């Protein structure tokens, strides 16, 4: 089974990416994001896409420009996650056949992202909006809009966010920090999945 959790591997290197990717998939985390401010991120994306094949959706985070969208697509990426709402980035992402998850914080940004073709919304920083902010914004979002909370959302407060209508989460430092082994990441991933399953009951 897979879960609505995006694994954010900020700082990962190409050499360690395949083993960590395998550990994540084994735990049920099948959407993997390599932020572009990581070392050699396109090489890591290519390595993950190659070793995980159709078992995971692999792509990039911190994507800010159309040129970066093209580079990720050429590396085999399937999902683009951004910290902001850039309509040109969203449109180019969809034109290249990838999922688009732009960062939004206000109703204006959320509706603009959806109008441009976003597949879902990344509420960021989640710690600033809080579950109450998401709950308030949900009133103006089209029915069926998927919203993932990122930054300040994790195992300790999954329940609060789910109660506020969060559809999923992006998990970064609680899951992976540079230098961690695949075994470490796999163990953390398993605990995070357990916490999510408990909160989502």
Notes on the structure:
InterPro entries: Aldlse_KDPG_KHG, Aldolase_TIM. Keywords: Carbohydrate metabolism, Lyase. The protein is of the alpha/beta class. It has one domain: Aldolase class I (TIM Barrel, Alpha-Beta Barrel). The chain is built from 8 helices and 9 strands. A 9-stranded parallel sheet has the order 5-4-3-2-1-9-8-7-6. Helix 1 packs across helix 2.
Concise summary:
This protein has 201 residues and is an alpha/beta fold.
Give the tags.
201 residues; 44% helix; TIM Barrel; alpha/beta; 9-stranded parallel beta sheet
The overall pLDDT average reads: 97
Question: Structural class, please?
Answer: alpha/beta
CATH architecture: Alpha-Beta Barrel
Portion in helices: 40-55%
Could you tell me the CATH topology label: TIM Barrel
Keywords: Carbohydrate metabolism, Lyase
Family: Belongs to the KHG/KDPG aldolase family.
GO molecular function, one term: 2-dehydro-3-deoxy-6-phosphogalactonate aldolase activity
InterPro entries: Aldlse_KDPG_KHG (IPR000887), Aldolase_TIM (IPR013785)
Detail the topology: elements first, then pairings.
Elements: E1 5-8, H1 17-27, E2 31-35, H2 41-52, E3 57-61, H3 66-74, E4 79-81, H4 87-95, E5 99-101, E6 103-104, H5 107-116, E7 121-123, H6 126-138, E8 147-150, H7 158-163, E9 168-171, H8 182-199
Parallel strand pairs: 1-2, 1-9, 2-3, 3-4, 4-5, 6-7, 7-8, 8-9
């Amino acid at each position: 089974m897979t879960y609505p959790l995006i694994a954010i591997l900020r700082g990962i290197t190409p050499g360690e990416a395949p083993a960590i990717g395998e550990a994540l998939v084994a735990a049920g985390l099948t959407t993997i994001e390599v932020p572009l401010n990581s070392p050699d991120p396109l090489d890591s994306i290519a390595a993950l896409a190659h070793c995980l094949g159709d078992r995971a959706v692999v792509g990039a985070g911190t994507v800010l420009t159309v040129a970066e969208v093209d580079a990720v697509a050429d590396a085999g990426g399937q999902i683009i996650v951004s910290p902001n709402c850039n309509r040109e980035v969203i449109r180019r992402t969809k034109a290249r056949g990838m999922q688009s998850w732009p960062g939004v914080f206000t109703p204006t940004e959320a509706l603009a992202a959806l109008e441009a073709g976003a597949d879902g919304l990344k509420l960021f920083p989640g710690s600033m909006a809080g579950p109450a902010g998401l709950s308030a914004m949900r009133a103006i979002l089209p029915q069926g809009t998927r919203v993932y909370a990122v930054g300040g959302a994790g195992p300790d407060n999954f329940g609060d966010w789910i109660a506020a209508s969060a559809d999923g989460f992006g998990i970064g430092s609680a899951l992976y920090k540079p230098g961690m082994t695949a075994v470490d990441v796999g163990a953390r991933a398993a605990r995070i999945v357990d916490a999510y399953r408990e909160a989502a009951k």
